[in-house]
Design goal:
The chain is mostly helical. The protein is 45% helix and 0% strand. The protein has three helices and no strands. Helix 1 (23-37) packs across helix 2 and helix 2 packs across helix 3.
């Protein structure tokens, strides 16, 4: 007879294999890549990430991400 202890449930969050990233690491890396792709344009990066600009600024500060800020619009 098969008992509960004979069944092995192996889920991704039960193990951390070498070379894998945590959710936080993946989020940080994604934000860095999008900022690079948008040349530091926060509004565009936030739009691509489907989050608000304030949320993106908070995540940038929280992760200590350094990025090249895009030049602002020129005043006329």
């Amino acid at each position: 007879m098969i008992e509960a202890e004979h069944i092995v449930v192996d889920t991704p969050w039960d193990r951390q294999e070498e070379g894998t990233f945590s959710l936080r690491e993946n989020e940080r890396k994604t934000i860095e890549e999008v900022l690079q792709e948008t040349n530091g344009n926060i509004a565009r990066a936030a739009s691509l990430l489907n989050i608000g600009r304030n949320t993106l600024y908070r995540k940038i500060r929280g992760y200590g991400i350094q990025y090249k800020k895009s030049p602002g619009r020129m005043q006329q």
